[in-house]
From TrEMBL:
This protein's name: EmrB/QacA subfamily drug resistance transporter
Primary subcellular site in the record, as a coarse category: membrane
Topological type in the membrane: Multi-pass membrane protein
Keyword Cell membrane attributed: yes
Major facilitator superfamily (MFS) profile domain segment(s): 14-469
Annotated localization: Cell membrane
InterPro entries, per database record: EmrB-like, MFS, MFS_dom, MFS_trans_sf
Phylogenetic lineage: Bacteria, Pseudomonadati, Pseudomonadota, Gammaproteobacteria, Aeromonadales
Source domain of life: Bacteria
Alphabetized UniProt keyword annotations: Cell membrane, Membrane, Transmembrane, Transmembrane helix, Transport
GO cellular component: plasma membrane
SUPFAM superfamilies: MFS general substrate transporter
């Protein structure tokens, strides 16, 4: 790949510019969850109904990831990056100005369009500017803010809700976005590449299918849920995905290469990600609600309590690859999936009588095993891809990661609605809590079910061969999310 020449000053600033986008997206992914009960109270909604604000963003990001590389090649990296920061910042402003859940959902979709392009385009620009020997050091500067975001997000969200207003969790993006726009305008190269034809027809079929199926699952958690409404969304969604698979068999440049699913490690990795992340995806949404609604924590206390998850995850980053290399994918993923599912289900024993220090230790362990799971699954999925398959494979993995996390939110909210009772009862659930015993029991049952669902991924990882896999292809060559 030809490396583009830029000035020394641009080369110094470019990683920090990409880091601004990474930080904005990573912070946004965690800061909102702690504020959901407060926002729900202002909107006169159940906190569980606020899942729509989370899912709308995740689905938008998932659907635009496959087009991010093509858009950057077609319109230029600087133009697309500027546009993405502008949209993300504008969406943040509209989120802060929202007075109803429906308004916030629209604003989150706008925010998601920008968020979907921020990280892939920034990372792609670094790939095209830095030579291979400098790439990893440049990317390490980008990744650090992405790790800080989940660490400070829950606590910062709680502090802003308790000592200011929930609107500030969105308004803080405005100065960051302004700085990013100025830096991008002056220091980001506008790199264009010759574009190939993009599979817009397949993209439409795939996107519509995934979105409709996700909305069908989300619909089950609504107070006025009905089988008819579910089927009206699920059937067209299933038809959309079926049409995409039919189309991909006949179109030579399909959105995702057909050859990918002939690779055992990729096929198992994608399916395992989809199932295992149902539990992991529910934790950032469900646990802040559990702490505030069921246990009565204030927003700051709940945000502080979530910090050990991020600390545990960060502490495991380097250890995870060593463990997988030492033991192999199959035993690590089978054992870790069971342990992670058991830890999620173990929240059923957490109550107001649980010692706080024990709760913090428990959450740190959850972060450790969660990070181990993500690292092992992602490395497995990409480990045997050839260079010509890397872009398509990594794009699909990124879509599945976002999709499975949004499904985790939808499934956990739906399960809580089923366990707590009727739609009318759900409407009465507010941040200050009522009928605490019933609420606590519903959360406990939800955690048990979600944990058991996550454990089902063990049956998928069991199909991996007994022999140890090599990590070389995943570690030696950086694969860039397009």
């Amino acid at each position: 790949m030809t490396k583009y020449q830029v000035s020394a000053k641009e080369k110094r600033i470019l990683p920090w510019l990409a880091a601004v986008g990474f930080f904005m997206q990573a912070l946004d992914g965690t800061i909102l969850n702690t504020a959901l009960p407060a926002i729900a109270a202002d909107f006169h909604e159940s906190p569980l109904q606020m899942q729509a604000a989370i899912i709308s963003y995740m689905l938008t990001v998932a659907m635009l990831i496959p087009a991010s590389g093509w858009l950057a090649d077609r319109f230029g990296t600087r133009n697309v990056f500027l546009f993405s920061i502008f949209l993300f910042t504008t969406g943040s402003f509209f989120c802060a100005e929202s007075t109803s859940l429906s308004q916030m959902v629209v604003a989150r979709i706008i925010q998601g369009v920008g968020g979907a392009l921020l990280v892939p385009v920034g990372r792609l620009t670094i790939l095209r500017v830095f030579p291979k020997e400098e790439f990893l050091s440049a990317m390490s500067m980008v990744v650090i803010p992405g790790l800080i975001g989940p660490l400070i997000g829950p606590l910062l969200g709680g502090l802003l809700v308790e000592h200011a207003t929930w609107q500030w969790i969105f308004l803080i993006n405005l100065p960051i976005g302004l700085i990013g726009c100025v830096l991008a305008f002056f220091f980001m190269p506008n790199i264009r590449e010759k574009t190939t034809s993009f599979d817009w027809k397949g993209y439409l079929f795939f996107s519509c299918g995934v979105v409709l199926l996700s909305l069908a699952i989300q619909r089950l958690g609504e107070p006025d849920a009905s089988l008819t409404a579910f089927l009206l969304l699920a059937i067209p969604g299933a038809l959309g995905l079926y049409t995409y698979f039919w189309h991909s068999q006949r179109y030579p440049h399909a959105l995702f290469s057909r050859a990918l699913f002939r690779i055992t490690s990729f096929r198992i990795g994608i399916l395992g990600n989809l199932i295992a992340r149902l539990g992991s995806g529910s934790i950032p949404f469900l646990t802040p609600l559990f702490l505030q609604v069921a246990l009565g924590f204030n927003p700051t206390h709940a945000g502080l309590t979530m910090v050990p998850i991020a600390l545990g995850a960060m502490s495991t980053k380097l250890l995870a690859n060593w463990v997988v290399r030492r033991l192999g994918f199959r035993p690590v993923l089978m054992l870790n999936t069971l342990l992670l599912g058991a830890l999620i289900a173990g929240f059923s024993s957490v109550s107001n009588e649980t010692p706080y220090a024990l709760l913090l230790l428990y959450l740190a362990l959850l972060g450790v095993f969660n990070s181990m799971q993500f690292t092992a699954m992602n490395t497995l999925t990409l480990s045997e891809l050839e260079r010509e398959e890397a872009s398509s494979g990594n794009s699909l993995l990124s879509v599945v990661m976002q999709l499975s996390m949004s499904l985790g939110v939808a499934v956990s909210a739906t399960l809580f609605a089923l366990f707590y009772g009727s739609g009318a009862a759900l409407k009465g659930l507010q941040a200050n809590g009522c009928q605490q015993a019933e609420i606590l029991s519903a959360f406990h049952d939800t955690y048990i079910t979600v944990g058991c669902l996550s454990m089902l991924a063990t049956l998928i990882f069991r199909r991996l061969p007994q022999k140890n896999h090599s990590l070389s292809s995943a570690e030696e060559e950086p694969v860039i999310r397009r």
